[in-house]
Amino acid sequence: MTEIDAKLAAVECWTADPCEWAQGEPGSADYAERLVQTRAAYAPWMADELGYGCARGLDVLDVGSGQGIDLIGFARAGAHVTGIDLTPRHVELARAHLASLGLSGEVVDGDAERMPFEDASFDFVSSNGVLHHTPNVDIALREIFRVLRPGGTARILLYNKRSWHYLLQQVLWRGLIEGRLRKEGSMEGVLSDGVERSSIGARPLVRVYTPRMAKRLLDRTGFSPTRTRVRHFRWVDVPAGHLAERIVPLRSDLVLKILGRVGGWYVIVEGTKP
User: Fold this and answer.
1) Close Cβ partners of 100 (under 8 Å, ≥ 6 residues apart)
2) Contacts by residues 112-119 (CB-CB < 8 Å, ≥ 24 positions apart)
3) 92, 14 contact by CB (below 8 A)
């Protein structure tokens, strides 16, 4: 997949099916609140890991801001928020959702690899589940580094190549047992065909990173110090997980938290600009 094809596929996918979903009328306050609630139910750990609570008074940039869920979270925490997204439909919805809730913020249509911001414009940059769709992740990270102020922090969530979901559901089940790896010729093709929700058969680029790979990406960009952790496990995301869910102890928050910290679907990588 070429760089242009990857970006067109991303726009096609999330124009038809904006990232994350809730019941209601998109653009309304009710829908925005339902998006926030749906996210909290899906990943209750995410607000803390993204750092909403530490953002008061900061200039925060959300790279790949989608429908604005994280913009809402940061704005409610007292941050001055800016979002950027490649998909015009996302930009439209994020603006509407902020306005519907009486929150201020700027959302621009743009590419993470060529951001229209001055150097050292932000105190904090968040990117949640976006840069694994970016053809040139090194370029996007250099842009994040450029727009951060000295002492500023970047916190980025990527899909984890060492996760239970990737190894069991994507590689073992879909790739080998269902034969999709033979058909597609690569795991990148398998992921493109089935990780993201699409009602139109869109195939956005999907890549996965180990915690070590994610750390190296930030290290070579110039961030220091850097650290990683992994989060997020649900039985529904692995083969035969519905059987495990019938066993009450395996459904406990503690078990899910432990499994998530060992082989969660998300790598959180964090770095500071010296």
Assistant:
1) 27, 28, 29, 32
2) 112/63, 112/64, 112/84, 112/86, 112/140, 112/143, 112/144, 113/139, 113/140, 113/143, 114/143, 115/63, 115/84, 115/143, 115/146, 115/147, 116/84, 117/61, 117/82, 117/147, 118/147, 119/146, 119/147
3) no
The pLDDT confidence band at residue 127, using thresholds 50, 70 and 90, is very high
Helices (runs of H) and strands (runs of E) counted in the chain: 12, 7
Residue 213, pLDDT above cutoff 90: yes
d(CA 31, CA 11): 22
Q: Can you give the residue ranges of every domain in the chain?
A: 3-159+205-234+262-272
Place of tokens 């990406």: 217
Cβ atoms of residues 133 and 110 within 8 Å = no
pLDDT at position 2 over 90: no
Half-sphere exposure of 109 (CA within 13 A, CB side): 9
pLDDT band for 143, please (50, 70, 90 cuts).
very high
Alpha-carbon span 103 to 92, nearest angstrom = 15
Chosen CATH of 3-159+205-234+262-272 out of 3.20.20.70, 3.40.50.720, 3.40.50.150, 1.10.760.10? 3.40.50.150
